[in-house]
Amino acid sequence: MENSNNELALRYREIEPLTDKLNGPVLVRKNDTNEFFVKKCYPLYLEEHLDALQKIEHRYLPKIQEVVVQDGKLWLYEEFVQGKTLTDVIQSSETIETDQILTITMAVLEALGALHNKGLVHRDVKPGNIMMTSEGTIKLIDFDAVRAVDGEKESDTVQLGTMGFAAPEQFGFAESDERSDLYSLGIVMNICSVKEYPKKQLTQDPMLRGVIRKATKLEPAERYQSALEMHQALRQQRLRQIAAAKRAKSRAATLEKGPIRTYTNTKPNTNKWDTNNYVKQVISIISRWYEVIASFFRKYIPGFRTEVMWKRVIAIVWYVFLIIGTIGNVLEQPTTGLRIQLFVDYLFMFILPIILFTNFLDYQRKLPLFSSCNRVYRYIGYGLIFLFWLVLTKVGLELNSFIYKHFN
Question: Which regions span the lipid bilayer (predicted)?
């Protein structure tokens, strides 16, 4: 829609530029209502996307007043959001409470859900584009990188996004979609928690760790598939947090209001059996051991380090067959020497590939090929690991055979 300079001048009065950039955002005031807006210049190819954005009204998105094409330039007039960016909050805070991180993330997810429902992807979710108003409201701002999801392209026509927060597919490896925004938001969550990117230091916060790990998977198919799905996962985490807080408060109230007991020097009846207390102690011990074992499996055992149930089922079936097959075949050997030799052979043939190909102890993150966003480089990395396994197995089996022949 074409508008004359005079018409815009009658409607808006420029107050001051908000940055030193040429054609940067300018604070303006609407003459008839005295409302403040931010006037921003956008590329002309975004006109259709910004028109779609203007139709979205959401409490966690700034209000788009109007989209104007003027003198070959595209201008957007949007609500002026007064407050701090999340970047400012992170830098000025030693720590951000988990509850606040959940609140911010769930608000941004609702904003993203509104965009995604209209077929739009933000593509630049980062702390600098998340505003916290003086009233405590969250706003997702800045639509310089917004695009519509096509679903049939091999990559984005225009590759935009902020390094460190943008999903791998935003750099030309595939078309970005809703899951790209969720990847970026997972990075933001980790930055809020430990002020580091997940690949350098993943938060140990049990309320956030699993969600961040899934949201930031390299393969989009392994991430949350929608903002709603990720929102529900966080909502469940928050409900657990609330329930835990209520239990702690209830226990504290019980201790505070409990009757005062007096004790005499009489010897307690050692023959009396407190069944309820005994059961509680047993359950508590089992629960602690379960958490220790579950934590070990999630951290170290391939197949259990993911939240994907089918991977865990396959891992259980594989480990059962491997253990039964190994023990059965080893015990069938007539001598101790043969048993040791066969056991070592099995280590090279079956155990070693599990360690190498399932990223045991997250060793792949330290290798350049696997830390690359280029999928081809990662495939090359797996090829080299396969060759390494073949060579190591060949050498190991021959060495094992040589030792058996010469020392038995």
Answer: 313-331, 343-364, 376-397
